Write the structure tokens for this entry.
Amino acid sequence: MRLVENIFFICIIFKISVSPASTKLPQDDFSFDSCSPPQLAVNGSETEAGETRIKKEYSHVREVKFSGSIGPLGEQRLCKIKCIAGQWVGPLCIDQTDNGRFQPLFRNCKLEYINPHLLVTFRNVSIHNTGWTFPHAAKLHTRCSELGLYKLLGTPTPQCQNGQWSSRLPSCVPTTILTNFTEDAPPSILIRIPSGSASAEPGGELAVFPGSTLHFECIFSRRLGSPDWTWTSPLGQYLTGWAIAPEEREWKYRLSIYYAKPQDTGTFTCATPRGITNSINLVVIAVHCEPISVSRMHLSVRVEGTRLGHKATFQCPIGFVVSGEANLTCQASGKWSAPVPKCELVKCPSLDLPEQLGEPHLQIEEHDNNYGGKAIFSCAWGYKLIGPPGIECELSGNWSGSLPKCVPIQCSPPVLPANGHLIQSEAPGMDGGRYAVGSLVQFACIGAHLLEGEASIICTETGNWSHPPPFCRPKCSYAGEPENGFTSPTKFAYDPGDELQIICNEGFATDSDIILTCLPDGKWSSSLPSCQNITFSEDIIESTKE
């Protein structure tokens, strides 16, 4: 026997889960009628100690009962497995629709597709998405989104029968209003309720509270002929005919029911001259739903009343969103069309995981994805933000803008000084002539030029260099000192136009009073003269005179 999928069993006797789909056969010998212990697990993991503990206890057990959570809505059922001829058989679960008897669980059915404009409900819960699985005997209720504007083709209540649906889900065919009065389309039926209340039921019926007045308006072009109303109601006659108002009498063929009574229950069908039909199944019933009480935080409700067709509208304060159906209708079953919703805080998609940012260098400094919260961003070292540095979670549950990007911070190539060059022509992170943050370049001058400024500069996080590029200015180098003398002033380098005076020691002198001048090309105007011993020269002159 195949078991329904996704069933979670909790063993009542031992308060551990039991997986009856498979059993372990221990090596111990059991009597012919005894069964091996069922496979035991805690939170999905098998427990050897637990199995050992119950081996002896199970040697005479014939039946194990446990609680099962069945189907997509988690319906709680009492289930059991039985030991028959040494084998566990089951599970068998109580079916509330069959006088509470234990019945086998058959295969479930999966909802693979929902036709457009089709509304699907299961036990008063709307099914909006495919992929749901339903247990054996589950019955779906279907109807078209707007009664009368679409015609339902197919069985409105498909049922799961051991893994197969009893029929395909029906489809909704657009009628004359939606097809621009095409003759081959079923006629549209507009429903008007001037007084009273009504509910469009999950199975497609129109349920009306007794005493209501309603009009069924068959929409068909009068120039193509007159449609015809028929009904199965036992009352016999209803007022029919073209509408009286000038703007309506060419396309509305009406059937009116005044002060509806339970005897008006039946199927009302409009047929075109070509015999194409559309129908409304009417149920007149006096039903009241239980009063709605709201105890959930933040949730407020406005209720018309509790009789059939009355509505309850729920609201949440700013910053919260209604989770569930915001508008409920009292239906012919005496139940509201959906469970009471709740208010959930508006949240935007989370951004606190690296993969959610989608940018390897983007970092989040502040993250609050509740309504009104902000996400503040920064970039890793060496990168800068392109886009807003922060976004805000809006009431729609979306962020106020797109995520920023991080791009590398780069400095443009530095300006080379005249008569200068780069000692380091390449740097880490160089990209198409641009330099990444942290790149260092060094300058040097050529010829008789000296560097003024910083010889090394670094690309900073601002995208600018740490210092302006240096200059290479022409300079005269230190000329040295003559023997037996010195120069003045003494400097490491001299600017063009600077003069250098030669001063000899006492008893020494130059041949002439020469002053060296630093020329614009970085050269001295003449070579450095020498200091001669003038005392020795004078002695020679005196000797000659004698």
